[in-house]
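Need Ribulose-phosphate 3-epimerase's 3D structure for a figure. Predict it.
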Amino acid sequence: MSEIIPAILEKNFNEIKNKLTSLREHVKCVHIDICDGVLTSSVTWPYGGGQLGGFEDSDFKKIISEEEGMPFWDDFDFEFDLMVADAVENFDLYMKLGPRRMIFHPDLGGNIEDFEQFFEGLDVYIRDNVEIGLAFKPSDDLSMVSRLSHKVDFLHCMGSDKIGFQGEKFSDQALENIKLLKKNLPGIVISVDIGINLQNAESIVVAGADRLTVGSSIWKSGDPIGVLQSFQSLV
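Structure prediction for Ribulose-phosphate 3-epimerase:
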């Protein structure tokens, strides 16, 4: 059975809290998208104005200063999708959010040696307690994905090349990539994100997805929890 992970993509921290409130007792893991306006054109909490290091949000400051934790931190395992240009440079800062999983978006068409060294140099405590995911887009070179797959805990397959937004169409190429990676990398865990709905979820699971990250299909419905439960019963 595949796991359904609700995705939250919000600019406003209060909206994140509201969605987390509604998810309590329904799921254990929640996916939170962090977009800096640099790696992606979209901007989400805790960024403002698309500036690197522009952490002016008061709630974020309280969390990283350890005055507070993420809302309901004892109820959820948080999975943070770092669609940011400074994921490596500010990794220690993002770690203060208290993640169970962290997802990185390296440039798979560029110099990946820096990411290899970063993954290899992670502290043993982090590797034992935080799962590290490698995100890739449908158009990315799968040989690069395979090269890095042995250094991470799971692969995060994006369903569209347009990342940082919800409601995009799921790519046929993404489905083929899942099948190929499952065939060539036995035992690899694959999560899938973007474009998942009740009509295509089953085929994505059959292709080999272990986790489905679902955003707009849940939140843009008239009954988020009802739709979430439909996904859970489907897969």
